[in-house]
Amino acid sequence: MKAVSLERNLRTDAAARQLVAARLARRPGARLAESCRPRDIETALAIRRRVGELLHFDVGGWKCSLPMPDKAVFMAPIYAPTITSASPCPVLAEGAKARVEPEIAFVLGRDLKPRAQPYSDADVRSAIRETRLVLELMGCRYVDPASASFLEMLADGLNNQGLFVGPEVSDGLIRPLETIRVTVASGTETILTREGRHGDGHPLRPLVWLANFLASRGEGLEAGQIVTLGSYAGVLELPLATPLDIRFGDLGTLSVQFIGME
To answer: What is the percent of the chain where pLDDT is above 70?
Structure first.
């Protein structure tokens, strides 16, 4: 049994080191070696946990959506050094484009610690300090993400590169958040418009799930962490070196300029 456990730990460490190397090089690489690929959710989460240990990064937030039949766990930590509100915002671009998802995020005002009793909607709602307009910065450690399994993507953090945090939404918890028209403009030119709809109906729903999932594992959410909860318009490919105003319906406007990361 000890030999099996040791071998599993070695495979987990090897996978994590490959992903860390791609992160530090700021360059995607090959899929995980066949011998190191996760074959279940727990192994994928163990690889991801080891990535955080090797990077020595604090968890500044999370990304999350409700589980699906073929994706029983859809959550990942967002490391504190990859969260920013400063523009110009460096990104690992694809060509001359930044790949982002327009989302609503909640900032916690108090901890949601592990406990036996499940958290209710009201419990989670009362722990929220702020509602923010955000852009999830998309980026994968695999050069060909389409060839990777879902478990490999889970081990790598579900295509997350970081988070750009925009303005606070006043009275965010009582505003309609089910549908949002997303408009991207540069100066007087409208680049695109999407009639956005939240994939889980409302961003509070996946946050409640995340709080209970982590609590069931003896983990928790911490005050000050920001949780982004699913795109309203899929992945947007936006130009670099261009001042952009991204309007979230009548909730507010996020202004940003992206630059390629060297």
So the answer is: 97
User: Does residue 45 have a pLDDT over 90?
Assistant: yes
pLDDT digit string, tens, across residues 121-162 = 999 999 999 999 999 999 999 999 999 999 999 999 999 999
Residue 176 falls inside a structural domain: yes
The pTM of this model reads 0.95
Q: What is the CATH number of the domain that holds 96?
A: 3.90.850.10
110 within a domain of the structure (yes/no)? yes
- Measured distance CA(170)–CA(243) in Å, rounded: 24
| Exposure string for 130-140, b = 16+ CB within 10 A, e = fewer | bbbbbbbbbbb
Residues 6+ apart with CB under 8 A from 98: 89, 91, 137, 237, 238, 239, 240, 258
> Judging by DSSP bridges, how do beta strands 160-168 and 128-138 pair with one another?
antiparallel
pLDDT in tens, 225-248: 999 999 999 999 999 999 999 999
Rounded distance between C-alpha atoms, residue 80 and residue 58, angstroms: 6
102 within domain boundaries: yes
Domain span holding position 184? 58-260
Distance of CA 112 to the CA centre of its chain: 19
Q: What token pair was written down for 120?
A: 């209710």
Does residue 6 lie within any of the structural domains?
no
Domain count, the chain: 1
CA 206 to chain centre: 12
H-type alpha helices, 156-227: 204-216
Q: At 143, give phi and psi (nearest 5°).
A: -70, -25
